[in-house]
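Ticket 4471: requesting a sanity check on a complex prediction with alpha-D-glucopyranose. Repro inputs:
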Amino acid sequence: MKNTLINRFTGVAAAATTMALALTGCGSTDSGSDAGSGQLQGRGPITYAASKTEVTAAAPLVKAWNAKHPDEKVTVVNLGAVADQSRQLLIQSLQTKSSQYAVLNLDVIWTGEFAAHRWIRELDPKLYPMDEMLKAAVAASTYRGKLYAVPTNIEGGLLYYRTDLLKAAGVESPPTTWAEMKTDCAKVKATKQGAGVDCYAGQFDKYEGLTVNFAEAVNSAGGVILDKDGKPDVDTPQALTGLTTLVDAFKSGMVPKNAITLQEESGRQAFQDGKLLFHRQWSYQYALANARDGSSKVAGKFAVTTLPGIGSHPGVSSLGGHVLAISAFAKNSKTASDFVAYLGDAASQRAGLENFSISPATAATYDDPALVKKYPFLPTSKKVLQNAVPRPISVSYGDITAAIQEQAYAAITGKKTPAEALKALQSALEAITG
Ligand code: GLC
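Returned structure tokens:
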């Protein structure tokens, strides 16, 4: 196994370089078949496989496409709401070289792994609106200097907070640190309106969301998971401060006990049922929690700010989002390519934002005055994306995230101390990255 460090993030994601991006390539996968690198071929019906939120966002766009392209209809396959399961389903299919899915909606962290395994086609940048994309989004679509995907959504973790409850407790502005968040929470709990409301939750179930939240705790305390040379460096005082802050929040009851089962959707339900004062979540929650059809108890009662920092260090979000790739085994790949260009263009991304508050990858959409009016969180998102840190990018991403989930979960459930968990994680990551 050889290790290759490729630092692909520049500009917008400049902070990302501090974390280092290790692309760990196994010789055997990289020198594999040439599937998918040839000419695009064929037109006709195709399938589009995506996770739940992306399926919802694409529905009206697919409907419009199908009306215009009766001979090139797109069938959407819902891979479910949990990132890890979507990844498994895609990989199982691609490992058998199945043409089952033509267009794949990938999490930003999978591009390197899927490209290295030659499961997705290299793309011609001229066919897609790449110049309009945020640099972090282009980087997340690129592997070894070549384009493999077209981004449709790029996002960072945001702190949602209940404006009504903070106001009732006399708190004038949202917290900027975990310590302030704790103090504000105590104030809110002492009010009539705040009694019975839990303080804070993120995504703490044992899945990809935990990797995201763990990375944010570590990075928000000034730590890293991999150093600038791509080597694991998580057994440090900074990472310890980050993980200890999270674990202490569980111990003190600031985070409710059931939070170890929370994923994006269950946490969103808790927030919109009015059960949480603070919630770490992606932008898609905004439109749903603000719905005026009775499905949300907190419509008009919340706002969004940047994640809280730890000590004197500012809060840092993990970089999230999704990109579109074409399966190396796709039939009708000309149609697949046109569909990718369509779903990735600024108009489609604008629609995803307008209808479902999904953070776009197209830069100008963040400055659209009508959208900023509708979604006041947009300037915050833009700021968050300037400092968001990608998770470690590796051909072995599946093993890396599993190791993080294992140790972070052991720490938040009290099975290991934060120090023990970080030591074990350091050894596991060293073994994985060689
Ligand atoms: C969101 C993010 C994605 C992340 C996932 C974790 O879908 O866009 O990047 O991996 O949440 O649950």
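Notes from triage: Residues 1-34 have pLDDT under 50 and may be disordered. Leaving this open until the requester confirms.
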